[in-house]
Amino acid sequence: MAVKKFKPTTPGQRYKQVLRFDEITASKPEKSLVEPLHKSGGRNSKGRMTMRYIGGGHKRKYRVIDFKREKENVPATVKTIEYDPNRTANIALVSYSDGEKRYIIAPHGLQIGQDIMSGSDAKPEIGNTLYLRDVPYGTVIHNIELKPGQGAKMTRSAGSYAQLMSRDGKYAIVKLPSGESRMVLQTCKATIGMVSNQDHELEVSGKAGRARWQGRRPRTNAVRMNPVDHPMGGGEGRASGGIPRSRKGVPAKGYKTRHKKKASNKYIIERKKK
Question: What is the pTM of this model?
Fold first, then answer.
């Protein structure tokens, strides 16, 4: 999917870069797979703001995505490639041979009319979901489960992919987009291919209003706050604010926040690269 640039007829158009949506084939979602999506505005059940910088935004509908792919050894045909406002990747509407329709995360290169399948009988081809024990070494994968039957939890955003490196006992060793190598049970599923819409990172909003359309309100710089509002606030003139840290005092710039005794540490072979 290519990026479209604009003539600088207005300040907002000068640096604006958006996707062309060449791959998108449908403008309206499947009604049976849509649910209402309610906005919180950053407020909790008592109406108090617990998350800052959230509010406004265009009204959305949630597309129910099949992350489990538990309908095994039943072929499905790709009907449409669609835009999803709730995620960076594109989604694909697939119709199974028994008539059931579902949405999946669209891999890069998935074509309209292509047949896909999940389960032990599926071949290692783009869009098919296999158990990690059946995936060939070196294969590019996405939508990886952490627990069997839980549904995909890792490598779901636009343009991301992981790679199956090897197997060791009941575990498969997967190299994640962050550079981290991790052990995952071979009975977990993963989908073949890279996630679609890899040009998403090239988008440039061009103006603050596009962030407001997405429900993001302006953020205030910590050093511009008062001491009562942030540890980096206060000072005379343009004070730097001292040690970079969060509102709760947790240092930034290289401070490790992962717990030393976290249960999943034993599954990590190589840490993610800095």
Answer: 0.91
Kindly compute the dihedral angle of the four CA atoms of residues 189, 195, 196, 198, in this order, to the nearest 10 degrees.
180
Indicate the residue among 201, 233, 254 that finishes a domain: 201
Q: How many domains does the chain have?
A: 2
Spell out a b/e string for 28-43, using b for 16 or more CB atoms within 10 Å of the CB, else e. ebbeebeeeeeeeeee
- In tens, the pLDDT along 218-258 reads 999 999 999 999 999 999 988 888 899 999 999 998 888 88
Question: The domain that contains 230 carries what CATH number?
Answer: 4.10.950.10
Angle (nearest 5°) at CA 115 between 109 and 120: 105
**What is the Cα–Cα distance from 148 to 172, expressed in whole angstroms?**
13
Q: Which domain holds residue 236?
A: 220-274
3-class SS of residue 95: strand
